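Hi all, long-time lurker, first post. I run a small reading group and we've been trying to get comfortable going from sequence to structure in the token notation. Rather than ask abstract questions, I figured I'd post a concrete chain and ask someone more experienced to write out its structure so we can walk through it together at our next meeting. Sequence below, copied exactly:
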Amino acid sequence: MKPKKNIIESLSAWYQTQSGQATLSKLDEQCAEVLSEIFGYYAIETGVLSGQHSLLQQTRIATSFTLIDKERNNLSSIEPKQRIEGDQLETFSSIISSNEQLPLATDNIDLVLGTHVLELSKDPHQVLREIDRVLVPEGHCILIGFNPFAISSLAKQLRSKVSRQKDSVKLRSASRIRDWFSLLGFEVLEVQYMGLRPNVKNKKVFESLSKLEDWSEIAGPLLGKLYMIHAKKQVVAMTPYKKVWRAPAVLSGGKVVLNNTAQKIRRENFSNY
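-- Answer (accepted) --
Happy to help. Here is the structure in token form:
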């Protein structure tokens, strides 16, 4: 089995666990808060959760699309998802493609939301370049990724799988992705960590540890299983070039003020006078 499918299956299976469901619920809350401030016409959702769980339920953007990776083996189980917006029923359409080559027009998307798209790609820089290409000026990008520094059984499991396939996929930290966004001219608005609770099987004990989520700003980089990066595409304003016009020659004191060309001709032809 391909290493990419191995990691996809591991992440999908983890999202079905008690810890994964709690983290996913927290992720829904964080996304809803961020999406409430983003407006536009088109949004696209891609990654591991696309087609299985939509994080764009609370978006105010008019039309949403789901991009499904063409290498996934569960395409037959994917169905269009719907939401109710006022009195209208809207459908999330699906597109089968790769994140390295998005079948979208340049400067046309207001929001791109991706789950684990960089750690599943052999060329994460190309994924970010494609996101930069399709986003409109001042467009938004939200990336959800796995924290490779998390102290958890999931971290050890994924790190062991990735270490055996060094040339295929790698886990990227939030600080590394922040640097990549900066190189592309994006402004990173916020970075949030979630999933700080350990994988405790006892449900009561697990729920009693819910207060750990309040320590995400301090302990998030060490305990948080997931991170969410919200970045905004910046466009440098170009200052128009204004040509400086010289004032025309004027008459002063009964004499003609010669321009540079006339003065040169006079020196060359009438120097003896």
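A couple of things your group might point at:
The chain has one domain: 3-233.
The radius of gyration is 28 Å.
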